[in-house]
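Intended use. Records such as the Sulphur transport domain-containing protein entry shown here are meant for training and evaluating sequence-to-structure methods. They are not intended to support clinical decisions.
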Amino acid sequence: MTSITKVQPVNDVKAPIARQDAALNKPQISLIVGALVVTALLMIYLLATQHISQPILLVIGLALGYTLFHARFGFTSAFRRLASVGNGQAMRSHMLMLAVAVTLFAPILAYGYSFFGTEVAGYVSPVGVSLVVGAFLFGIGMQLGGGCASGTLYALGGGRTVMFVTLLFFIVGATIGAYHLPFWTEEMPAFEPISLATSTGLGYGGAWLVSIVIFTLVALISVVIEKKKRAPKMAPVPSASGWQRIFRGSWPLFAAAIVLALLNALTLMVRGTPWGITSAFALWGSKIAALFGVDVASWGYWQGANAAMLESSIFADSTTILNFGVIIGAFIASAAGGLFKFTKVTVGNFFASVIGGLLMGYGARLAFGCNIGAYFGGIASFSLHGYVWGILALAGTFVALYLRPLFGLSVPKSNDSVC
C-alpha cells in the first residue's frame, strides 16, 4: 500500500479561501447584486407556484450556505484532521452542533411541533450492509472529492471550480445508487431502524441524556488524542473585527455549530423532516436520465411515496430548494468578503473529484444520506444509524489518506500547520 507522503498541507474546501481571506478584499458588489436579483426572482416564482414553505426553505438554505462559508465549517476536513494528525478542534465543534441539535429536536419530535400542520419525523434508518458499505464509500469519496455534500455545495458557491466536477459525478453516483438501492435494502441483511428514544424505552428525555454523554466522551477522547499526538492547532483565519466580522471574515466554529443546529431544527419544523441534501441529486439525475429515454419510473426507488417527486417539478422538492439556497448563500458570503474567484483545476484533482463524486453519490444512497442527512440529521433524530455512519465514514477517511497522494492531494503530517 502506498505510504503517506509529506506534501504541502492543503485543506481542500478551506485552503484557497483561507489564503485569500488574509487580504480582506473589497466586497464584490456587482456579484452580490446579481445574487440578490436571482434570489428575488426565485422567491417570486416560488411564492406564485409553490406552498409557502418553499420560499421559507429558500431563506433557510441561504442562511445555511452563508454560515457554512463564513465559518469554513467542514466535515471532510474535520474527519481528515482527526485521522491524520489527531487534531480534534473541528470534531468538537461537531459535538457541540449535535448537542444543540438533539436539545432542539427532542421536544419537536416528542410533541410534533411544526409549522403549517406538517407531520414531523426524524431520520431513523436501518443498520445493515447497505449502511456500512455506503458510509464507508462516502468516507473515501469525500476525501478524494474535496468536500462532503454540504462542502461541495458551499465550495461551489465560493468559486472552487473543481467542485463542479465533484457535483456532476455526485449526481451520477446518486442516480446509479437510486437504481441499485432495492438490491442493497431488500437482498442484503439489516436490522430494523433503531431510535434511542422510541426503540429502547428511554423516551426523548433519556435519549437526550445518553446523546449528551456520548458527545462529551467523543470531545474528551479528541482532547486525549490531541495531547498524545501533540497535534498542531488550526491556524487562525484573518477576519474583520466587530460587527463587520458578520460579513468580512471567519466565524468561530462554535458559533457556526450553534447556528447550523438552530437552522436544522427550523427546517424540521417547516417541512417536517431535518435538513438533507443528496436525495435531490438522485432526483436531478433521474429526471435527466428520463429525458434520454431511461425508464426511471420503473425503478424500485421511485415507487410509492417517491413517485410523486419524480412526476413533479424540481421546484416542488424541498431538498432542491434548500440546495439552491446553500449555493446562493455561500456565493453571497464569498462575494461579501471579496473572495469569489474561480480556481485552477489540475489533472490530479479532476480525476480525484470524478471518483470522489461517484463514491459519495452512490454511498449516500446506500447509507440513507450523507454527512448532513445521515450523520447530522440521523444523530439529531436519535437514530443509531447516524452513529454507525460516522464511524464508517471515519474508517473510509483512514483509507483515503493512502489514496490522496496518488492524485497529488495533500495529507497533513504531524509537523505541518493545519489550516
